[in-house]
Design a protein that fits this description.
The chain has 310 residues and is an alpha+beta fold. It has five helices and 16 strands. It has one domain: 2,3-Dihydroxybiphenyl 1,2-Dioxygenase, domain 1 (Roll). A hairpin with a 2-residue loop joins strand 6 and strand 7.
């Protein structure tokens, strides 16, 4: 069993437009845009990152906004709900705010003893704000959301699977422990991990998801550094998983593998961080390009990347 996994590092999804995506995460949810760059494999498409002030692992939501992308069809083999942690007593504020801003499908419920507010993102993305006690993370508060109600970072990711068994065993191998069960949902967490340390598996009888705008592309798990990442990679490969070589993503190093339930997992390092090419005070302001795409800057800015108005 592995002991290097800290919890979530980031969650990456697909969107249909950069401006609407930026507005939702900064102006509606009050997060900070911490990086404006491009997709390594499709540089004509933005890669936008949102999180706390510094982009601390466990707080970072990222998006590939493919212009006018068709909406995905929800199903199994994907992350259905991405959960954010908010302070106790703050859901009333969030319900009023989201309603005022015409956010769709707002619903209150209690799961595993935690009050939460479900809602959709602009492309039908499934989200939840979950009240938690004692979250010590410092939130970003410069977008009209005060510290007493602001999002702290991730709480959890909920995977929808036809068969939970093999993925549950994988999570246990990765250092997660089963916490509880409620109806068709099993909850796992990493003891002594970061505060984004919960994964839920919801077992449902449904067709496989068809990925598109609003779909989660992959979830990434945090490890401290490249040495621990290599340990994880070797252990996964020794267990039979097909794991990619280490890939330099500028702000972290990444490995990827497909889970038995169909969800794409990444293991990402906490180093070097999002301040490697921008001062923390100015994160997310300038367009930052991977070195191999720098020669495309003019054509990307003039032809492909829509200006984002903050």
């Amino acid at each position: 069993m592995l002991n290097q996994i800290n919890g979530l590092h980031h969650v990456t999804s697909l969107a249909s437009g950069a401006q609407s995506n930026n507005d939702f995460f900064t102006k509606t949810l009050g997060l900070r845009r911490i990086k404006k760059t491009v997709n390594f494999d499709a540089p004509e498409v933005y890669h936008l990152y949102y999180g706390d002030e510094a982009g601390t692992p466990g707080t970072v939501m990222t998006y590939f906004p493919f212009p006018n992308a068709r909406r995905g069809r929800p199903g199994t083999g994907e992350v259905g709900i991405t959960g954010f942690a908010v302070p106790k007593g703050s859901l009333g504020f969030w319900k009023d705010r989201l309603s005022m801003l015409d956010v769709q499908n707002i619903k209150e419920e209690t799961t595993f003893g935690e009050d939460r507010l479900l809602f959709d993102g602009p492309d039908g993305d499934g989200f939840a704000l979950i009240e938690t006690d004692g979250d010590t993370r410092t939130p970003w508060t410069n977008n009209g959301v005060s510290e007493d109600v602001a999002i702290r970072g991730f709480h959890s990711a909920d995977m929808r699977l036809r068969d939970a068994g093999a993925s549950a065993e994988l999570l246990k191998f990765m250092g997660y422990e089963e916490m509880d069960r409620q109806d068709n949902v099993t909850r796992f967490h990493v003891p002594n991990g970061n505060e984004a340390n919960v994964i839920d598996i919801t077992q449902v009888d449904a067709p496989m998801a068809d990925q598109g705008a609003g779909s989660v592309h992959h979830i990434a798990f945090s490890v401290d550094n490249r040495d621990t990442q290599l340990e994880v990679r070797k252990a996964l490969m020794d267990t039979g998983y097909q794991v990619t070589p280490v890939i330099d993503r500028d702000y972290f190093y990444a490995i990827y593998f497909r889970t038995p339930g169909g969800v794409l997992f990444e293991v990402a390092t906490n180093e070097p961080g999002f301040d490697r090419d921008e001062d923390t005070a100015h994160l997310g302001e300038a367009l930052k390009l991977p070195t191999q795409h720098e020669h495309l800057r003019t054509v990307l800015e003039e032809k492909y990347l829509e200006p984002i108005v903050d």
